[in-house]
Structure formats: C-alpha cells, structure tokens
C-alpha cells in the first residue's frame, strides 16, 4: 500500500457494495472515516506508511450496513462509486459518501490481508 | 551556661560540662599541633596576638561558633586615604615584614596613613596662608579671580574631606597577612605628590618671595585638583575594580564536603580570602563534628580478619610476605556487607529523626496555644473568679517552655545539635518569637535545619583566626587554576579558582508577525 510519487498506485482491492440505511431523515452507511490530504497522516493508526494521506475506515458500527457488506476497520478506501479517494480532502470524501440521491455506494477498499491472500494463492 | 541550674532536672548542664572537660584536653593537643603547622615550608602565615589562647575559650566541641570578625592584631588597617596593589611590591613587602618586628607593623600602617592624609589636606591651606603671614605688604592685591579660586578651593577641600570620611575612615574588618599593596601604592603616590609640590613651592615661592598672589592661589588649587584625582584613583582601585565578576571560586569544606560557588572580580589572594570568609559565615551550615563519622557498629565489623598461624618454619622472611599477601587476598575475597548495614542504619536514623521531629512540632504547637497576646482594649481580668496574670515576654516564654522542653531536648540529641543550643538560648529565642508574634513553625525553623555559622556566634570582641595557606604569594592576583586553602584548627576550606568563560553573544531578530500556527487535524467523520 505504499506509493511512489509519480508512479501509478497498484493495490489489490475488494469491491464492497453497501446499501444505505434510512434512519429518520438521514441515510447512514454505518462506519467512520479518517484521513485526507488536509489531515495529519502521522496520527493514523491503521496505515503502514505514516505519510499515507488516504481515507481509512476507523470504525464500523456493529450490525450496520457496512459490516453486513463486509467492510472492516482499517480498510483504505480507494474509490467510491468511481470517484477516486486517494487524493481527496476529508470533507470531499465525506461528501462523496453521503450523497442524498444515492442509495447504494460501491467502494473499492484495500487491506493488507488481501495482498497476502493473493500471494498465497499464486504460490 | 551557669544559669541553667534553675531547672535542676535538665540534663543540658551535665552534657555541657562533660564536653567542655573533653575539650580542655583537646585544646592542649591542638596547641602543639598547630605550632608544628606553622613551621612548614609553604607560605602559611598565621597571626597570633601575644597572650591570646589558640582556641577561643567559649568553644566546646565545634569551635566555629564563636566567630566574630573583629580584628585583634592590626597590620594594615587603614584610616589612610589610599592604597594600591602592585605585584612587584610583594618582594619589598616581604623583606619589610621579615625585618620589622610585629609591634612596629601594627602601628605603621594606620599611623602613616593618618599623618599623610592630614598633611595632604592641610597643605593647600598652608600654601595660601604662608605668603600672607610672611610678606603680606609685598603681595599684589588680587580681586575677583582670587575670590573665585577661594570658593572653588573651599568646596573641593570639603568634597575631599567628605569622601575621605565616607571611603576610608571605616573600621577594617580583617587583618591581612601581607601589606595591602594597593593601599601602600596610593600612600606612596600621595606622599610623592605632596612632597614635590612642597619642593616647588619652597624653591619658587618662599625663596624669592613671589609677589603674584593669584599665581600662588592657582598653585594651591591645582594641588587640590591633583588630590581629588588621586582619590578618584583610590576609589577605582579599592572599591570598583573588583566589582565586575571575572572568576568563579569553588569553596569546599574538607570535613563534610559542603561546597559553594562564588563569582568574584579581580582580587589578590588575601582579599579574595577575606571575601570568601565573609560568605562562609552566612552561607555555609555550621560545622557539626558529631555528624561526620559512620556509626561504630558498621566500621568495627571490618576489623575482624583472618588469623594466620605459622607452623614452625625456618624461613621467616619469606613467610611474613607470604602471610601478608594471603591476608590481603583473603580480605579482598571476603564479602563486604558494611554497605548494607550503612544503608539500614541511615534509614533507621531518618526514621528516628522524623519521629522526634513530629513529637517536637506537636509539643510546640500545643505550647503556643497556652498563651495569647493581650489586646489593649481587653480588660486585664476577664472575671473575678479567674484573674489572668499579665506577664512580660520573658515570663511567658518560661511558662510555656516546660511542656516542650523534653521533646526539644530529645530532638536536639537525635540530631546532635545539643552543643549549639543551651536552655538559656532556647528560652531567649522563644521570648523573641513571642514578642514578634511568630508562629510555632517560625520558632522551630532555627532548630529544624542547621543554620549558617553566623547564627551561632557569641558576642565577644575576639577575632577569628584563619590561616591562609597558598603556594603563590598571597598578594598576587587570582588566576586560573590557583588553589589556596583557609585553615582553621579542625577543618579547612579549599578554594579553587576558575575564570569565568568568555561569552560570545549573538543576535537573532524575530519578526513578531512571523509567529503563525496551524492545527494538526485528525478528524473522524461518521457516514
């Protein structure tokens, strides 16, 4: 998950589709995000590379739509509905996830265990 | 100490007489010791006023208590105007000191200084008066310019008088082993000036009977100016030069390792010694010989060693060396547990002191609640059945001393301070504290921590004798790496001189608008 500036980022990703749940007048997804290019990357407990300014999943509410869909804490969100999440500010990320006219969000997330699983399967 | 007998059950008196008896034996031993000390090769100069005992009579165990810096023998005490230090004069002063006996030196300095000062002050007046007395008719009258000169002369003489009184007519506080070289130089300078002025006056004015009086007045005025400048020089050399710090002195007491650091300016060794001793009396805690030694229980265990027996061999010389070597090896291999015992002994001692201190504090607090200051507007007798007697501070102190006496005595015994505080002194201090409305804690501060040596001194006129031991001549200036020591009978202070470092001070300008900050963000949003 480390990136070399100037080179395209390659990662093994998992596609997760989350259906938003209606709670009152809000549509919630059931997880929290942290990170962004305007944030301090050194505080991120989930990233391997402490200069990684990507969007990470910091909390998943139990029995929420995200957990049901298979999202795990510590995942890095790479794309949301086709929009890139690796170089966005925190607020832009929040907006992409909470669009009122979308009922379902399709995320591409990556985590360390995915790479290892691919490595094992290739050997 | 004799008026302790009013409290018959009190054991201070007995402990004191024991100590003074012990000390009288010690005094004879010390007398012989210090006589040997002064015959050593290094330049140590001791001053003994004739007929004075080597030990001050009031001292019991710590003879550091009775320390008054009044001088007993005067060597270069000055009511003189001027003094200067010059390293070249040490040779001259050394010869002088060796040649002249002690009694002459005692009066030489101040007498010479006083005579010279008086002479110098009277000279301008004599310059003015002599022509008037001797050939008044032949003098040309001089009008306004002369009067101006008269007035300025009068004021300058007044200023000279006042500044001499302020600067030099002070009772000196120390007698130094050698000449105070600055002072001697200034005296010589004054003498030279005045002598040369008199010489010129005699040749140019008195002989040809000079008629220009204005010139004579101008001449006298110039002498007064010169004297003022010499006094300025004296001020700078004696008072101002040593104010700017240049050296750092480390003073260590040899017996218990108490050390302090002081900053001084450019001084000669003897003046620096006086300076250090001034600070010693107010900064260093009092020297208590009872607190020095490890308890005997720890040290005695070390003495038990191995006994080595010889089994009848002929070669004795070989055996003895082998024997000692074996003993040393055995002693080295044996496990030394004395540090363990020292640690536990210290902990036990701490605990004991704290316990006694707690008892003392409580006893004093309770004792202080027994008396109360009588306000002016209160009636003296609150009720006819319980008339309160009005006491003065002394009686009040004696009244409340009894409940705290035992706790105080035990505490002082534990901290080995009982030679320094007699019962009389405690009652005096109590009286003092009551008079000034002090709290029990303020009363106890004197006993809970060892104060500076000055606190324990007795009021008597005898000076304190210190011996300055140094390898350099004592009138030489302080320099890097110099070490000298000030010896007292049972301890000494070792002084090491290091120069203060030269400071390279740089500058950095910070624009006040350049102080800007950003937040370190780590927000977490739930979606």
Q: Give the helix/strand class of chain A.
A: alpha+beta
Overall SS class of chain B = alpha+beta
Which strand order does the major sheet of chain B show? 1-4-5-6-2-3
Summed over residues and divided by their number, the pLDDT of chain B gives a mean of: 76
Q: Give the CATH architecture of chain A.
A: Roll
Distance between the termini of chain A: 21 Å
Largest interface: A-B, 18 and 8 residues
The biggest sheet of chain A amounts to: 6 strands, antiparallel
Main location (chain B): membrane
Membrane topology (chain B): Multi-pass membrane protein
Subcellular location (chain B): Cell membrane
Biased composition (Basic and acidic residues) (chain B): 34-45, 58-68
Tell me what the structure shows.
- The complex is a heterodimer of chains A (123) and B (527).
- Chain A has one domain: Roll (Pdz3 Domain).
- In chain A, 29% of the residues are buried.
- Chain A has three helices and eight strands; from the N terminus they run E-E-E-E-E-H-E-E-H-E-H.
- Chain A is globular.
- In chain A, the strands form two sheets. In chain A, strands 1, 4, 5, 6, 7 and 8 form a six-stranded antiparallel β-sheet that branches.
- The two termini of chain A are 21 Å apart.
- In chain A, strand 2 and strand 3 form a beta hairpin.
- Chain A is an alpha+beta fold.
- Chain B has 527 residues and is an alpha+beta fold.
- Chain B has a six-stranded antiparallel β-sheet, with helices on one face.
- The N and C termini of chain B lie far apart (89 Å).
- At the A-B interface, strand 4 and helix 2 of A face strand 7 of B.
- Strand 4 of chain A pairs antiparallel with strand 7 of chain B, so a sheet runs across the interface.
- Chain B: It is found in: Cell membrane.
- Chain B: It is a multi-pass membrane protein.
């Amino acid at each position: 998950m480390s990136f070399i500036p100037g080179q395209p980022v390659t990662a093994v990703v998992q596609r997760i589709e989350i259906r938003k749940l209606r709670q009152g007048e809000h549509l919630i997804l059931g997880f929290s995000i942290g990170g962004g290019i305007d944030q301090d990357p050194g505080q991120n407990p989930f990233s391997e590379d402490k200069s990684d300014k990507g969007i990470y999943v910091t909390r998943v509410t139990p029995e929420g739509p995200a957990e049901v869909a298979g999202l795990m804490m510590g995942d890095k969100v790479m794309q949301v509905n086709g929009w890139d999440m690796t170089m966005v500010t925190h607020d832009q990320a929040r907006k992409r996830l909470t669009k009122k006219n979308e009922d379902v969000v399709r995320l591409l997330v990556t985590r360390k265990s995915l790479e290892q699983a691919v490595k094992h399967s290739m050997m | 100490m004799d008026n302790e007998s009013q409290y018959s059950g009190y054991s201070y008196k007995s402990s004191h007489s024991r100590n003074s008896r012990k000390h009288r034996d010690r005094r004879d031993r010390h007398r012989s010791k210090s006589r040997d000390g002064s015959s050593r090769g290094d330049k140590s100069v001791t001053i003994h006023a004739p007929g004075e005992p080597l030990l001050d009579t009031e001292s019991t165990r710590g003879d550091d208590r009775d320390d008054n810096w009044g001088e007993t023998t005067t060597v270069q005490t000055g009511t003189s105007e001027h003094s200067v230090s010059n390293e070249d004069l040490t040779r001259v002063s050394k010869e002088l000191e060796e040649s002249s006996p002690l009694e002459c030196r005692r009066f030489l300095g101040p007498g010479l200084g006083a005579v010279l000062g008086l002479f110098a002050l009277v000279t301008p007046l004599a310059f003015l008066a002599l022509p008037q007395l001797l050939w008044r008719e032949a003098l040309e009258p001089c009008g306004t310019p002369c009067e101006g000169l008269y007035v300025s002369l009068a004021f300058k003489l007044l200023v000279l008088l006042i500044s001499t009184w302020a600067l030099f007519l002070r009772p000196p506080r120390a007698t130094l082993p050698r000449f105070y070289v600055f002072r001697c130089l200034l005296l010589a300078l004054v003498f030279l000036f005045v002598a040369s002025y008199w010489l010129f006056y005699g040749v140019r004015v008195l002989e040809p009977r000079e008629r220009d009086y204005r010139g004579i007045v101008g001449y006298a005025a110039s002498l007064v100016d010169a004297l003022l400048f010499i006094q300025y020089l004296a001020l700078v050399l004696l008072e101002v030069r040593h104010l700017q710090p240049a050296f750092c002195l480390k003073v260590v007491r040899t017996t218990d390792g108490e050390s302090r650091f002081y900053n001084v300016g450019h001084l000669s060794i003897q003046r620096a010694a006086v300076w250090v001793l001034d600070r010693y009396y107010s900064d260093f805690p009092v020297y208590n010989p009872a607190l020095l030694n490890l308890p005997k229980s720890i040290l005695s265990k070390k003495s038990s060693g191995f006994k080595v027996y010889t089994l009848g061999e002929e070669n004795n010389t070989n055996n003895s060396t082998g024997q000692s070597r074996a003993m040393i090896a055995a002693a080295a291999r044996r496990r030394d547990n004395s540090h363990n015992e020292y640690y536990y002994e210290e902990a036990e001692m701490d605990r004991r002191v704290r316990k006694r201190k707690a008892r003392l504090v409580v006893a004093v607090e309770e004792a202080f609640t027994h008396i109360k200051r009588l306000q002016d507007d209160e009636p003296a007798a609150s009720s006819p059945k319980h008339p309160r007697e009005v006491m003065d501070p002394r009686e009040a102190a004696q009244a409340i001393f009894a409940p705290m006496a035992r706790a105080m005595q035990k505490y002082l015994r534990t901290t080995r301070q009982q030679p320094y505080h007699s019962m009389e002194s405690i009652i005096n201090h109590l009286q003092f504290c009551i008079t000034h409305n002090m709290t029990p804690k303020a009363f106890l501060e004197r006993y809970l921590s060892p104060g500076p040596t000055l606190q324990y001194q007795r009021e008597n006129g005898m000076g304190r004798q210190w011996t300055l031991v140094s390898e350099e001549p004592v009138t030489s200036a302080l320099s890097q790496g110099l070490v000298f020591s000030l010896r007292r009978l049972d301890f000494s202070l070792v002084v090491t001189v290091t120069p203060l470092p030269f400071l390279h001070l740089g500058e950095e300008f910070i624009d006040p608008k350049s102080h800007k900050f950003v937040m370190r963000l780590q927000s977490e949003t739930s979606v």
